[in-house]
Amino acid sequence: MPGKKIVVVGGVAAGMSAASQAKRRSPESRVIVFERGKQISYGACGMPYNIGDPERVLEDLLVLSPKVAREKRGIELYTRHEAVSLDSGKRSLQVRQLENGEVFQESFDELILATGARPTRLKLPGFDLPGVSVLRDFEDGKRVKEAVAHSRPGKAVIIGAGYISMEMAHVLKDLGFAVSILKRKRSIIPSWHPDTIAKVEEELLMHGVEIHSDVSLEACESGPDGRVVRVLSNQGGFEADLVLVAAGIHPNVDLAISGGLRLGETGAIWVDQRLQTSVEGIRAAGDCAEAYHRVLRKNAWIPLGTTANKQGRIAGANAVGAGLRFHGIVGTTGFKIWDLEVARTGISMEKARAEGFDPVSVTISQSSRAHGYPGGTPVQVSLFADGPTGILLGGEIVGRDSAAMRINILATALASHLNAEDLQNLDLVYSPPISPVWDPVLVAANQLIKKVGRK
User: Fold this and answer.
1) Of 39, 214, 324, 359, which one's alpha carbon is 20 to 30 angstroms from that of 83?
2) Exposed/middle/buried for 89, CB within 10 Å: 0-12, 13-18, 19+?
3) What structural domains does the chain harbor?
4) Residues designated as active site
5) What is the pTM of this model?
6) Is the separation of the CB atoms in 340 and 399 below 8 Å?
7) 416-421: long-range contacts at Cβ-Cβ below 8 A with a sequence spacing of 24 or more?
8) pLDDT digits (tens, 9 = 90+) for 180-235
9) Is residue 156 pLDDT above 60, yes or no?
10) How many whole angstroms separate alpha carbon 79 and alpha carbon 65?
């Protein structure tokens, strides 16, 4: 029986997961991947930590080489090829070979879009100077690593205050840079709980990172060698040997729009739980696509590598007829600065109100280990629930000593639609070196029960 011709656009997490799964399940099918970059299948989330180690090369992050994909997995892989338009009716892509500009048409039986997301680039004077970088794909990582080597030690300015900003502030400070974070809003890590934000800010300031709020950027200035030397703003100039723009990302949906595919309310590609788009035979996965959110019970856009890999596998399997279902996400994520671990899951209080809930919250602090056992450190737990029903909506954890791993308890509770009383009654591990009799999560649940409708 002849196989299908399956084309995948994008060759990183979702794309290569999809291609590998389709080829494994249907060896007789042709699986073609177009990737605009030079590399495929790399651990992008590991780039800050690789940049922080001058002895390591960025290639350490590569998971799968183009050679192995072609020769061992049987995937027809084309790097430096960009899909520029989609004709859904004719089931055809227009593809450009980036090295020579040649444009050609590629037909397909099944198509999987894994076009990812693109970073926000500031359209201000001087933000294209040498020494000014974003950090999104592999080539960005190489540029940032080279810029760090060129400028170290020096002054680094980070634009934005999200996860990448937090991690890079830690990395650059440890490399000897004086680090300043410039942000438009008043708070770092926007939408997180104020108690969590306070702990993170305390950690940054303790390590000498400067935080500047309500900053409106104007331009970057260059020095005699043409490289950036200063960032200009409404608060004056900030000297800089290195500028990292980490002002957010947006789903890369241009190809989907050209093909008439439906976009969701979030601006990412709408998909159902089988990763099918609005056009039969075209699927989408990863950072370009929405994902079903198990707390909201509707689609959301929370771009993460874990989701991309899972969605990619299901999209690839379904392209050859598997009929699998992606059960969804609860929005679990985290980061670490120095030895402070920060994690969240579910939705925030702000989001809960916007979605029509009547949320309540508690924040507690409890030792990570039993009283009297050495080495315990405070674990701060914030829990959010719907006031009338007690249904859990989300939570955040900040601490040291593997504190962030406790977020997986809350993620599991959310996926199971537990309420505060259910959480309180969980049978969690007790051992003095590991956790006290009342784990911090259970202590928070005890306090949460006092605020919800059930007693």
Assistant:
1) 324
2) exposed
3) 5-45+58-118+250-319 (3.50.50.60), 132-247 (3.50.50.60), 342-449 (3.30.390.30)
4) 45
5) 0.93
6) yes
7) 417/294, 417/391, 417/392, 418/391, 418/392, 419/385, 419/389, 419/390, 419/391, 419/392, 419/452, 419/454, 420/383, 420/385, 420/390, 420/392, 420/445, 420/448, 420/449, 420/452, 420/454, 421/390, 421/449, 421/454
8) 999 998 889 989 999 999 999 999 999 999 999 999 999 999 999 999 999 999 99
9) yes
10) 11
Q: Tokens representing 189?
A: 């890590």
Q: Please provide the size of the chain in residues.
A: 455
Q: What tokens were used for 368?
A: 């990570």
Q: Which two tokens stand for residue 233?
A: 């703003």
